[in-house]
Design brief:
The chain is mainly α. It has 9 helices and 2 strands. It has a two-stranded antiparallel sheet. It starts with 6 loop residues before the first strand and ends with a helix.
Length: 165
Amino acid sequence: MSSSTIRQHYYRHPLYDKMVDEWDLFNTYVDFFVFAGSVGYATIDKTTAASYDEAEYAGEGETQQEMLWMHLSNKQTYRAVAASIAYQHTNDPEALVDPKIQLEVLARYARAGVERLAREFGDSASTPRDGLISFIENQQPSGESDQGDILGNIVDSFDQSMISD
């Protein structure tokens, strides 16, 4: 199967429609999917993401939509995000180059991320642009925080696995 035809079902919460169509905070569902996956990765632990059964992270009925790898593959940043999160989730170097693994892992974290974002913004009557910016800023680790820089941790982990292999 060509990597451009790889697809993954994902849970599409009604917040997708609000963030993209109603509030115009994201240009596409792909943009919001990757953002939700990043939020999920930053806010839940690996065990929780791994414990979702397929119906939870892939949705069912009206909440099930399909993400095509080709929509992520044409954006270098999205490919890097997907590969990094998949590698951190699996600790398997194969996840760095396997789009099927990357999409499944990103769908797991997007489920958690959209649920977190829905708790924060789902009931907003108007565009929560300022609230979303504050949310992102509050998720950034400060220099005095015990939480490390997520990107730095990914790089360090990758470097360590390359050294030990």
